[in-house]
C-alpha cells in the first residue's frame, strides 16, 4: 500500500462506526464501485470489532490501528492491527458445516466471504490484511 | 449512529421494526428488546428490517439468539428484508436456511409458519 492513511482508534466499540465511515469514504474517493464499498463496509466493521474486543478482553488500552489506501495494482487494501491475544482465524471460514446455533465465527466467515484476499498474521497481536478489487468481478456470492 | 426499535401486535404476531445501524455498539439494545418481547410472551416475532441501514455479524448473532429464544417456546422468528446488501450476508453465513426471509411485511404476516 502506498500513500496510506492511518487511523488510530481507542478500544471502545463506539468507534467501529467511525472506522466504517472513514475507510469507506476513502475507498469511494479512490473510485471504488458502490456495491464493493458495501462489501468493504461490512468487512471493516467485522475486523475492527474483533480488534477492539480483543483489546477489551486483554484490558489493553493502546489504540487499534487501521492502515488503508488504494494500491498501484488497482486494489484497495485495509490492514487492521491489534495488540490483544486475538481471536482464532482458523474458526470456520465458510458456511458449510457451520451450526447455525453457533454465533461465534460469523465475523471471520463474512471477512473471508467479502474480501478478495485476506491474510491473518499473528504477531504481538493479530493483523488482518484485506484486499478488495475496485469492481465486483461477479464471482462473489 | 442511532438504532430505533418499535413493536406492535398484528393478529397473533408481533412486528418489531428495526431502523438504523446494527453493530457491536447498538446490538445490545436489539438483544434486550428481543429478550423483553419473549419474556412478555411474544413468541411469533417478525423482525422488519426494511429500514436497516447497516447490519454485521453482531446483529446476525443477536437475531440467532432471538430465534433460539422463541424456538424454546415453539415460536417463530421471521425476517422482512429486501435489501440485497443485507441479504448477501445472510447467504454468506448460511443463515438464509435458518430464517424465513420475506420481501414484504404483508408476505410475512400471511405466512402460516
Please characterize this protein's 3D structure.
The complex is a heterodimer of chains A (141) and B (113). In chain A, α1 runs antiparallel to α2 (34-57). With 141 residues, chain A is an alpha+beta fold. Chain A has a single domain, classed as Heat Shock Protein 90, CATH 3.30.565. Chain A is built from 3 helices and 5 strands; from the N terminus they run βααββαββ. In chain B, α2 links the parallel β3 (44-55) and β4 (76-80). Chain B is α/β, with parallel strands linked by helices and 113 residues long. Chain B starts with a strand and ends with a helix. Chain B has helices at residues 27-39, 57-71, 84-92, 105-110; strands spanning 3-10, 13-22, 44-55, 76-80, 101-102.
Radius of gyration of chain A, in Å, reads 14 Å
Largest sheet, spatial ordering of strands of chain B:
1-2-3-4-5
Report the biggest beta sheet of chain B as strand number plus sense, adding barrel if it closes.
5 strands, mixed
Overall structural class of chain B, as computed from helix and strand content, comes to alpha/beta
Shape of chain B: globular
The number of helices of chain B is: 4
Helix content of chain A: 25-40%
Instruction: Report the CATH C-level class of chain A.
Output: Alpha Beta
Which architecture of chain A per CATH? 2-Layer Sandwich
Tell me the total number of β-strands of chain A: 5
Amino- and carboxy-terminal Cα gap of chain B? 34 Å
Number of domains of chain B: 1
Largest sheet of chain A: 5 strands, antiparallel
Please render the helix and strand layout as text.
The complex is a heterodimer of chains A (141) and B (113).
Chain A: E1 5-9, H1 16-29, H2 34-57, E2 64-70, E3 75-81, H3 106-114, E4 117-122, E5 126-133
Antiparallel strand pairs in A: 1-2, 2-3, 3-5, 4-5
Helix pairs in contact in A: 1-2, 2-3
Chain B: E1 3-10, E2 13-22, H1 27-39, E3 44-55, H2 57-71, E4 76-80, H3 84-92, E5 101-102, H4 105-110
Parallel strand pairs in B: 2-3, 3-4, 4-5
Antiparallel strand pairs in B: 1-2
Helix pairs in contact in B: 1-2
Amino acid at each position: 500500500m502506498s500513500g496510506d492513511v492511518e487511523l488510530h482508534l481507542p478500544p471502545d466499540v463506539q468507534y467501529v462506526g467511525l472506522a466504517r465511515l472513514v475507510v469507506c469514504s476513502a475507498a469511494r474517493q479512490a473510485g471504488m464501485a458502490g456495491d464493493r464499498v458495501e462489501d468493504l463496509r461490512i468487512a471493516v466493521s467485522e475486523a475492527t470489532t474483533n480488534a477492539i474486543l480483543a483489546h477489551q478482553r486483554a484490558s489493553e488500552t493502546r489504540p487499534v490501528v487501521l492502515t488503508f489506501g488504494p494500491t498501484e495494482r488497482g486494489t484497495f487494501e485495509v490492514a487492521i492491527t491489534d495488540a490483544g491475544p486475538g481471536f482464532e482465524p482458523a474458526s470456520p471460514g465458510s458456511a458449510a458445516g457451520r451450526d447455525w446455533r453457533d454465533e461465534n465465527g460469523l465475523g471471520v466467515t463474512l471477512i473471508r466471504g467479502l474480501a478478495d484476499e485476506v491474510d491473518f498474521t499473528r504477531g504481538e497481536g493479530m493483523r488482518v490484511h484485506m484486499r478488495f478489487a475496485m469492481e465486483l468481478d461477479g464471482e462473489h456470492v | 449512529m442511532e438504532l430505533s426499535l418499535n413493536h406492535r401486535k398484528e393478529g397473533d404476531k408481533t412486528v418489531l421494526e428495526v431502523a438504523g445501524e446494527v453493530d457491536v455498539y447498538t446490538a445490545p439494545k436489539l438483544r434486550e428488546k428481543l429478550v423483553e418481547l419473549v419474556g412478555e410472551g411474544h413468541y411469533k416475532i417478525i423482525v422488519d428490517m426494511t429500514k436497516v441501514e447497516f447490519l454485521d455479524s453482531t446483529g446476525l448473532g443477536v437475531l440467532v439468539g432471538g430465534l433460539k429464544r422463541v424456538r424454546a417456546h415453539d415460536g417463530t422468528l421471521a425476517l422482512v428484508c429486501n435489501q440485497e446488501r443485507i441479504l448477501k450476508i445472510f447467504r454468506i453465513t448460511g443463515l438464509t436456511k435458518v430464517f424465513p426471509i420475506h420481501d414484504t411485511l404483508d408476505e410475512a404476516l400471511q405466512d402460516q409458519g
